[in-house]
C-alpha cells in the first residue's frame, strides 16, 4: 500500500475529477449493481482500512445489510452512495468514511503521470475562486486580528495567501483563528500556516502519519522558508464541525503550547483517507492510516480536540475576544489605552458591536 504521496495524488486526481461533469443522477441502479459494489467494497475494506479486523467486520456487515434488502430503496447511484456513507460512518465509527458517484474517477496506483499543466491550472483556479479557503480577514476592536479559514487547500496554491493574511495581522496585539466551520484538507497546508507562529529557525515536529499497507511513517514539520512570523497570543475557535486537518491545526496549537483553543470539542476524525473505485461508478473513501502526534503519542481520533475554554461555538468568538481584551487590559499602563480597552471589553461582553458612523464630520 503506498503512503502519503499516493494519498495526496488520489486527492489531486479526485479534485480534478470533480471539475468534470458528474454522471447522470437519475440513472437506474439495480440489485445486481448493488450486489457487485458491496462485494468489491468488502474486499477493499479488508485490504486497506487502517484497522484490518475492523475493516473485515465492516465489510461483512455491509454485505449482510445488502442481502437483507436494506438498500433496496436506493435505486440510483447517488441514493446508494448516500446510504453507504451513512452506514460506513456509523458501523465503522470513522468520520472519514464516505461514498460518492463519479463515473470519471480513476483509482490511483501511485504510478500515474503527473497531472498536466492544464489540469493543475484548473485546480488552482478552483482554489483561487474559493478565496484560498480564507473566508475573512479583519481587525476587531482593541487591535485584535481575526482570520476565518474554511478549508486547507494544497500548500502550493494557498501558502502565499496565508502569508499575505498574516502580514495584514502583523501589527495586532493578538489573533483569533476561526476554524469552527473548517472541513479540513491538506496537512502540509496546516504545517505551512503553523510555521508563521514560531520564530525563524524554531522548527517544530507537528504530526506523523503511519500508513498500514506500506508500514511507513511520514513526518510533518513546520517550514523554514516562511518569512512572515507572528509572536503574539493566538486563540483558535473550534466546533463539532471542525474536521480532519482543521482538527490537526487546533491540536498542533494546543500540543505545541502556542495557542488557546476555544469552543466545543471537535469531530474526532484523524485517520487520513484515500478514494477507491468499488465499481459501477461508486467511489469509496477509506481511511488508510492514522495520525500520531509526536508529543502526546496519540491523536484526536474519536475523542476530538477538547477546548481549553469550553463554550458554545456560537459564543466562541465573543469569549476569545473578551479573554484577549482582559489580558491586554491587565498589562496596559497608559490610562487612555486602559479606558479604551475597558469600553471595548464592556461592549464585547454584552455581545454588542460598534455601529459604523457615516455622518458628515463636523470640525
Secondary structure layout plus pairing:
Blueprint (H helix, E strand, L loop, with lengths): L3 H16 L11 H18 L3 H16 L9 H16 L5 E4 L15 H13 L4 E7 L3 E6 L5 H14 L5 E5 L8 H8 L10 E7 L4 E6 L12 E5 L6 H11 L4 E4 L9 E5 L4 E6 L1 E4 L16 E2 L5 H16 L3 H15 L14
Parallel strand pairs: 3-4, 4-7, 7-8, 8-12
Antiparallel strand pairs: 1-10, 2-3, 5-6, 5-11, 9-10
Task: Please provide a written account of the structure.
It is built from ten helices and twelve strands. With 363 residues, it is α/β, with parallel strands linked by helices. It has three domains: 23-101, no CATH class; 130-271 and 288-313, Alpha-Beta Complex (2-enoyl-CoA Hydratase, Chain A, domain 1), CATH 3.90.226; 318-349, no CATH class. Strand 5 (205-211) and strand 6 (216-221) form a beta hairpin. Helix 1 (4-19) crosses helix 5 and helix 2 runs antiparallel to helix 3 (52-67). The relative contact order is 0.14. The model is unreliable at 5-10 and 16-25 (pLDDT under 50).
